[in-house]
Each structure stands twice: as C-alpha cells, then as structure tokens.
C-alpha cells in the first residue's frame, strides 16, 4: 500500500477511489512526476479497508488513452471482484500538472449487477476530487455507511449471470435489477451498432469463444458491449452447459491482464490498447469497431451470416419496432428493449438445446434437416456452427444426417 499524504508532490496526484457494496475504498495515482519529471506510472494512494489486496487495480481504473477524453467510466475485473470507475479530466492553470488534472473514482464489488447504482455518486465524487484533491471525508462516510465484509480469499468463480437470474427473467422479475445495472438503451445501442453482426457474435458467444473488443477511449460504452455479449449466451434449461467453460466478462483489460487472459478458456473483454491485436494466442475473435474477425481457420466460416441468421435478425428488429410502437401508442412502461433483447436470445438458445435433448432421447438420435430447422438454424449455412455446438456441449454421441452437407 502506497501512502502519499506527506509527499511534497501531492498536488500532482491523479486520484482514484475504489469503493464497493461490500465496501473497499482506495485512491490511486494515475500519473506522478518527480522533480525531474520522470514518469513513475499509476500508483495506489489511499484505501479503506487498508488490508484489501488491490495490486494492479491502478492500471484498470483509468484506461490507457483516457487523457484524450473529458469524462468516461470503466468496468473491470480484479480477481473475483468487479470494479466501476468514473473518470474526469479538468484543465488547470498549472505547468506542474501540465495543464490537466485527471482523476477517477470507483467501486469494487463481488458482483457487477449493483455497481451502476453508484454511478451518479462516483461522478459527483470525481468532480469534487478534481476541485479539492485529498478531501476524502465524503468517501469515508460512504464507506462507513455501506461497509460489509468481503468474501474471504477472493477466489470465487465469476460467471456472466447466475442461472437462477435467467430463470427469473422469463417472468420479468429480474427487470428492475437489470434496469439499475445498465441504463435503458444500452442494448438497443448494441443492436444498432452491430446490426446483423450480432448474430455472428451470438454464435461465437454460445460457442464460448474468447472475444476481445478493441476501441479507443471513451471505453464506458464498450464495457456495455461486453455486457451485451454476455447476454447472448445464456441458457436456462437445467443441466445444459454445466460442463462447458463459463463465458466470463472481464470488461476492460490492459497489458497487465495478459497473464490472466492466457489461462482463460472463455471470456469477453474490451481494451483500448491496439497491441492486443498482435497477441493472437490470447483471443479467438477480435472486434475492431463493427469489424468482427478471427485468425482461426475453423472459425472463419462462422463469420458469414446464414439465411436463418438474417431471418432471426429480421424478427428481432420487427419485435423491437412493435415494442416501440406499443410504448408510444399505449404508454407501455412495463416492457423494455432490454427485456426483449435478453429474452429473445435466451429463448433462441433454449430452443436449440431443448431440440437437441429431444433428439438425444429419441430412438433415432440423428440430427436431421427437420430438427435443425426446429432449432431455428439453417441446415446448410449453420452446419459448421452445429458441429461445434455438439462437440462443446457434449452431444457428440448424436449422429448428423448426411443431408446437412448438401441441403
């Protein structure tokens, strides 16, 4: 733990404060210059509780390249915990600070589903920290009000979303929490940004591939794309997918996360560091703007849209337009685009695995053109996707009709 209260360079500090619902609080330096102006790098300055292991979090709190933006927010992972940081950049008349003061205020929690509740608090606090560096009393009061014991060890398994939450989604009981977690509109923005390409991302997510999304700052909206990708891969049929790798959201990552990503079998993350594109062993799929690409020969055919993909996307956009019309004409405030998006892919995934389970339990366990169509897939265009799916989810005892390769 680095304490800088006594340093004569405290005015040079760019503070980061980390809080959590099960509260941990800290302040770190983003950049510190010594008298000779040598760059030291990101440094942790202050935290509560003081024994919290926050090694490396100073590199996650402020995204690389953030000096180019005025405000931003960042979701990230620290071990088994999730963090949210709000960043702000303020011009100052100071040659020592090189004309800019940059700070980030954030929270850390075992789950990301409640982090957004404190977004406005963090945004307010980072503005206060810009104006009054080192004034921690509101943060200390917040810590005392919210504090609870963090789970010991920090080695709990982190998943995209608990299975019971997705079961509850069918009855819309999860809607209030999801609305708090991510502001209304993030999924509709996801659809508009990727268009039909979301069907490609859906397949890759369901296959539990390692997906890395690149974008220059601001990175907040890109973190929402990570979240939306996770929503593509959920299944609520009991027992399905328990033996496959979890599709784990890492949110923002940088070069300090390389060793962690090397050991991951399945994840989705975002980065502002272009060097990751060269680290081809770290990912299966690289997303640059709307360009989805892979260097894996076995996955390249999956980047092409099938007839069924285009039909599903047409249905999704049609349902979305009907919902928007209902909201405008009837004042429907119960349903949301977020519900629609989540349930659309949840039901599609359930449809696939329900059909596969029925085929596996039949006297003739052969996947035919009819059963593929019953899954909502294209017997010809989705054949490779289906073969990958059967292998990954343990349906390798099923036979595949030869008609699928020539339909």
From TrEMBL:
Q: Which UniProt keywords apply?
A: Guanine-nucleotide releasing factor, Membrane, Transmembrane, Transmembrane helix
Pfam families cross-referenced by the UniProt entry: DENND11
Q: Which residues cross the membrane?
A: 12-34
Q: Does the keyword Chaperone apply?
A: no
Entry GO CC: cytoplasm
The GO terms describing molecular function are:
guanyl-nucleotide exchange factor activity
Report the sequence similarity comment from the record: Belongs to the DENND11 family.
Q: What is this protein called?
A: DENN domain-containing protein 11
Annotated source species: Amphiprion ocellaris (Clown anemonefish)
